[in-house]
Amino acid sequence: MELTAVREVFPLASAFRISRGAKTEAVVVRVSLTVDGQLGQGEATPYARYGETVEGVLAEIAQIWQSFAANPSRERLADIAPPGAARNAIDCALWDLDAKRAGVRAWTLAGIDRLDPVKTAYTISLDTKDAMAEAAKAAARRPLLKLKIGSGDDLDKIAAVRMAAPRTRLVIDANEALDLDTLNRLAPDLVQLGVKMIEQPLPASEDAALADYRGQIPLCADESLHTRAELDRLSPLYHAVNIKLDKTGGLTEALALRSDARARGMMIMAGCMVATSLSIAPAMLIAQGAEVVDLDGPLLLAKDREPGLTYLGSMISPPSPQIWG
User: Fold this and answer.
1) Would you please indicate which residues are annotated as catalytic (active-site) residues?
2) What letter does residue 111 receive in the DSSP assignment?
3) What value does the CA radius of gyration of the chain take, rounded to a whole number of Å?
4) C-alpha dist (Å) from residue 56 to 32, 60, 66, 148
5) CA 140 to chain centre
6) Does domain 2-109 match CATH 3.90.660.20?
7) CB of 8 within 8 A of CB of 277?
8) 211 and 236 Cβ atoms separated by less than 8 Å
9) Looking only at Cα atoms, what is the longest distance across the chain?
10) Percent of the chain clearing pLDDT 90 (strictly above)
11) Residue 103 belongs to what H/E stretch?
């Protein structure tokens, strides 16, 4: 089996802003595994919030492969590599390759009878009130919008989005930008504005403060949650978990995390980084039955990779074998 890993850049349709900063391109790492004429591929997005760089992830992939190439398997990968982008790219490539070699779809290997289409949220990035309202107006027919906010002063932006898109469901994502007092102060107004979920309101290091959260809106852990190892600590504080393959280190751990979170009565959000369809395709398995699906990465690109997933409005069709799995 041979492995190649390459850096790829995909410009965005417009700047994407969250509380930590802005980006104008998606920089991803694509791993290709070949054996006996079969090709398996996986994509990962190195994320600076978790101390990752493209160069570091490429080096980590090479290091993993040195100790892994003689006997590669999805089962062994978690024992050799920590969760993160490098392991994700290899793990998803192995799923793709194993499915092709077995002549079945990847979801069959995962014990899922069929893969259904899912409806994704569409993200409105952090901007001025008027700009966010204009973006929401253009997306008002979508069933779910996810708003990026950056402080407790952004209530007017949420209200402007609600006015521009009065019928859509709303989720807000603070990306760790709030404190507990601000969260509790905003909570009643957010209920009035119809917000259905609040994603990662506080810095991950301050999760314990959520024991004193007084709001009615469910909270979803994102930056705080990577693998099953955090569930004992987080399940009393959060109502939902945002499962992203780049955090879990691939589909293998993501499926296990989904199962364990469900067993604890937690809701599931299937999330993604800003990435191409190759990254989203395996996440479709996590999205099955999820309360919130946030797999809009390719919709934010100026142009997706080809072949790509089919998006009809907010509906995502299952991937063809030519894409993944």
Assistant:
1) 148, 244
2) T
3) 19
4) 18, 6, 16, 28
5) 22
6) no
7) no
8) yes
9) 60
10) 95
11) none
pTM given for the model: 0.96
pLDDT reported for residue 20: 85
Phi, psi angles (nearest 5°) of residue 215: -80, 170
Q: Tell me the average pLDDT across 100-119.
A: 97
| C-beta of residue 80 within 8 angstroms of C-beta of residue 69 | no
Q: Assign 31 a pLDDT band (cuts: 50, 70, 90).
A: very high
What's the DSSP call for residue 277? Answer: H
- CB-based contacts of 14, cutoff 8 Å, min separation 6: 125
What SS3 class is residue 227?
coil
Closest CA to 241 of 229, 253, 226, 251: 226
Report pLDDT digits (tens) over 175-213: 999 999 999 999 999 999 999 999 999 999 999 999 999
Contact (Cβ atoms closer than 8 angstroms) between residue 31 and residue 86 = no
Peptide bond into 307 cis (omega under 30): yes
Calculated CA dihedral for residues 158, 202, 261, 57, nearest 10 degrees: 100
The phi, psi pair for 122, rounded to 5°, reads: -125, 130
Residue 19 pLDDT exceeds 90: no
Asked if residues 165 and 140 have their Cβ atoms less than 8 Å apart, the reply is: yes
For CA atoms 15, 313, 248, 276, give the dihedral sign.
negative
Reading across the β-sheet that carries 2-18, which strands appear in turn? 2-18, 21-35, 38-44
Q: State which CATH number among 3.40.470.10, 3.40.462.10, 3.30.70.100, 3.20.20.120 fits the domain covering 118-316.
A: 3.20.20.120
Closest CA to 125 of 135, 117, 116: 135
| Separation between Cα atoms, residue 71 and residue 21, nearest integer Å | 41
Domains of the chain: which residue ranges?
2-109, 118-316
